[in-house]
Design a protein that fits this description.
It is built from 30 helices and 14 strands. By secondary structure, it is mainly alpha-helical. It has a 3-stranded mixed sheet with strand order 9-14-13, with helices on one face. Strands 10-11-12 form a 3-stranded antiparallel sheet, with no helix packed on it. α5 packs across α9 and α24 packs parallel to α26. The radius of gyration is 32 Å and the shape is globular. The C terminus is likely disordered.
Length: 816
């Protein structure tokens, strides 16, 4: 038995590029076969094992396998499945890898071997129709094939091979998209935040799987393996490029999970037209009739579309997404970030990358590594070729205000003390060539970036920095308020027709923004203080609409206000308010008073809103470190008494200020008939009242300012301080650990709305909410997660309902 070889010795024995390319292709097929799912009656055919040309070591191993009772077909094929041992068992150059690919491709097309299609909702929803209890986390092989019956083949990629309904397709774009053999499910406990999983398995009694166990024992007696891993690393023979922090191997997870069927069709059609026949040629080779792209994809399902799209390069797919988002074909509203859902735990590469789709297109982020600052520093070096003296002089001049002895020190100082937006704005826009370089390195679709603000935002987004949540949602309102103040101060008491028309021009936009702000704040505050967040399947998530269309949370709040006004017995007089139809400026102003009255009424009826014992968390009473806050189904009732009093008082004040200053009447003066003389004084009083009311709204956290973590510190006792801030610079400090960590509020690392006035514990434990904007993406996942029905026999089998529990993946080592 020869001694195991080192990577250096293997490199000396196998130095040729042709050998390495052939070995890489054969290893790709091997890995797919190791991961697939087999039925009990699966057999290795003669045409399969005859594609393999065994080495002398391989022929010896076949005889050893035969002596242990392994049948001849399985014995020969086992040399491929364990090709890299003490010696090489299969000759990759002499073997007919393309013929093997053809055979395996046909077996995939006719479902002789299976790969689960684990993207989107298909298997998640299908598993709910089977009577598996909550304890069934691993299915039997019989159950696996029953669940997979009638579903498409899974789409995964190893190197250049892509599995799917079309069999095995080959692309020049190497990736590593491994098989996912688990699908999440959610148990019956609505307070549980863990996504459990059911695992699909192969039939271990299939002859090739039974042979695998026997072969392993034989191979162990052969001694230690040679350093094939070192050989593969030396020549970068990976299925992909795991070290690349911008490489999009995880892109498939977003395509399969975060695009609707129609959006997948649109993107596939774009790729058919924009990739110089690369994708179109493959499409026609699998039987899709050539023609207009939209017609070619019109009858395809998600699996066919995904497999076809992976024929294109990552850059082409990214460009397609960026362009389709930019022109509104794929709707990603302001503030929305699409992420994989079912495959949300999957990562790719050494940086554990995960894809995100926002208003400025696709990007790769990492929850484990702080990549954005490092990428920015690298980009500076790419925009300025620092090995050239002229470039160094140029950058040194631009950073002349930095007090540092060397250019490198100036760069580091500047990037450390400047905000990412300041740094990118200053350097990116300094000259045209900088933007051209940034666009090339980050994969920007230049043609859809029409303004400097869009260019800066797109670069920030692609680097990995937050973009939308740094913007003040009321920026335009305050700018118009300032302008209105200027023009009214400059106008005489009895303005001329020209002066009045100038005021009217700004007043139209101003009052529209004011109405939107008040309506949004009223509905958000109503929902935040009256909705049972803890019992919701998606706790503490505010779901808003786009434009005039209300989202689910907004509609619920509006219905609550309607009910409150009806219960109060409004007299229908001129000062009554109706919440039927559109919320006008007057209705929204009075709505704050209606909401204050509603909240006051809850105190007297608190017993009606005590949470049912069936909805209490299972950990309650089982330990005494964590406290449960939401004893009522109305969260307002669980706030501190002084907080409740302050909220009612502040909301009444907002309504009183707006109504008493006749803001709605002032608006009507300028919106309707061009009457003369106009009342400038009333408008001035209204502007002052509006300023006071909106400041009250913002200071109390009743408007949807976005807060994000700006810094945190941890001491030697592991006590942490987190500081969150909004776009105006207003900060709130949180201290951890907390006694309230198990109440399902958002992580402090997430962007969120913070209702500063709604304190349920000292010093700064307040109501906080994540947010979603309605779109085809949120429609697709609107009822996710779906809970299993509760049964007495399954309760408590998983866990003690601890939010910190995490699921650990497990993968079988058998040929599946």
């Amino acid at each position: 038995m020869p001694e195991p070889m080192t990577a250096d010795e293997l490199a000396e024995m196998y130095p040729d590029d042709d050998f390495r390319d052939s070995l890489a292709d054969l290893l790709d097929v091997q890995l797919l076969l190791v991961e697939c799912k087999l039925r009990q009656d699966y057999r290795i055919s003669k045409e399969m094992y005859e594609t393999l040309h065994l080495t002398e070591a391989g022929e010896r191993m076949v005889q050893a396998f035969l002596r242990k009772g392994i049948k001849y077909p399985e014995a020969r094929f086992m040399c491929l499945l364990r090709i890299l041992g003490n010696e090489l068992l299969v000759d990759p150059i002499q073997s007919d890898t393309q013929q093997l690919i053809k055979i395996v491709s046909e077996q995939i097309r006719d479902t002789t071997i299976r790969f689960p299609y684990t993207y989107g909702r298909l298997l998640y929803d299908r598993l709910l129709t089977f009577p598996f209890g909550e304890s069934r986390t691993v299915l039997s092989s019989k159950e696996t094939f029953e669940v997979l019956e009638g579903t498409p083949q899974g789409v995964f990629q190893v190197g250049r091979l892509v599995t799917g309904p079309y069999g095995l397709l080959q692309t020049p774009h190497r990736r590593s998209i491994p098989l996912i053999e688990e699908v999440p499910f959610h148990c019956s406990d609505i307070k549980c935040t863990t996504a459990h999983s059911r695992t699909f398995v192969t039939d271990y009694t299939a002859p090739i799987n039974e042979a695998r166990d026997i072969a392993e024992k034989v191979l162990r007696k052969e001694g230690q393996n040679s350093d094939w891993n070192g050989y593969i690393r030396r020549f970068n023979m990976y299925a992909s490029m795991p070290w690349n922090d911008l490489k999009g191997d995880s892109l498939a997870y977003l395509l399969g999970d975060a695009l609707t069927l129609e959006e997948m069709k649109v993107l596939a059609a774009w790729l058919l037209d924009k990739t110089k026949n690369e994708v179109r040629q493959i499409a026609t080779s699998v039987g899709i009739r050539s023609g207009p792209a939209a017609i070619m994809v019109s009858t395809l399902g998600p699996a066919e579309l995904l497999q076809l799209m992976l024929m294109a390069s990552d850059q082409a797919i990214a460009n397609g997404l960026d362009c389709l988002v930019a022109d509104g074909t794929i709707l990603v509203p302001l503030g929305q970030v699409r992420r994989p859902v079912i495959t949300g735990r999957e990562r790719s590469g050494w940086y554990e990358l995960q894809p995100e789709l926002g208003r400025f297109g696709i990007r790769q982020t990492s929850p484990e590594f702080s990549l954005a600052p490092q990428r920015l520093r690298r980009l500076v070096g790419q925009m300025y070729l620092l090995q050239k003296d002229s470039e160094r002089d140029e950058l040194d001049w631009q950073l002349r205000g930095e007090d540092a002895p060397t250019l490198d020190a100036k760069i580091e100082n500047y990037l450390q003390k400047s905000s990412p937006r300041e740094a990118v704005s200053s350097l990116l826009l300094a000259r045209k060539s900088n933007f051209i370089v940034a666009a090339s390195k980050l994969g920007l679709a230049e043609e859809v970036l029409l303004s400097d603000e869009d260019r800066v935002n797109a670069v920030l987004w692609k680097l990995g920095f937050p973009v939308e949540d740094l913007l003040d949602p009321h920026r335009d309102f305050w700018a118009l308020h300032e302008k209105m103040g200027q023009v009214t101060r400059q106008s005489p008491i009895n303005p001329s027709a020209t002066d009045a028309e100038n005021i009217r021009r700004y007043a139209a936009s101003f009052f529209v923004k004011l109405e939107d702000l008040l309506r949004d704040s009223l509905l958000y505050t109503t929902w935040a203080l009256t909705h049972d967040h803890f019992a919701n399947t998606r706790p503490f998530v505010y779901r808003s609409g786009v434009g005039e269309k209300l989202g689910p949370s907004e509609s619920e709040a509006l219905n609550r206000l309607r009910s409150a006004e009806a219960e109060s017995g409004g007299d229908g007089g001129e000062h009554s308010v109706s919440f039927d139809g559109k919320l006008t400026l007057y209705t929204a102003s009075r709505g704050f008073q209606v909401l204050a009255d509603l909240l006051s009424s809850f105190d007297a009826r608190a017993e009606q809103y005590i949470r049912p014992t069936t909805d209490l968390p299972r950990w309650l009473g089982q330990q005494d470190l964590q406290e449960f806050v939401f004893a009522h189904t109305i969260p307002f009732l669980d706030l501190l008494p002084e907080s409740r009093e302050a909220i009612v008082r502040q909301l009444r004040n907002v309504g009183r200020i707006l109504v008493s200053a006749e803001v709605s009447d002032a608006r009507n003066d300028w919106f309707h008939a061009r009457r003369s003389p106009v009342d400038i004084e009333r408008l001035r009083r209204s502007l002052e009242a509006v300023r006071d009311a909106v400041l009250l709204i913002q200071d109390g956290g009743y408007s949807r300012q976005v807060y994000r973590r700006v810094r945190n510190e941890t001491d030697e006792a592991n006590r942490a301080t987190y500081v969150l801030a909004d776009a105006t610079g207003q900060e709130i400090v949180f201290f951890r650990p907390s006694r309230y960590a198990w109440n399902n509020l958002p992580s402090l690392y997430a962007s969120q709305h913070v209702m500063l006035s709604a304190r349920f514990a000292e010093p700064t434990e307040v109501l906080r909410f994540k947010f979603e904007v309605e779109s085809p993406y949120t429609d697709m996942w609107q009822d996710y997660p779906v809970r299993l029905p509760s049964t007495a026999t399954t309760a408590g089998l998983f866990h003690a309902n601890l939010p910190t529990q995490r699921h650990e993946n497990s993968h079988s080592q058998h040929l599946k």
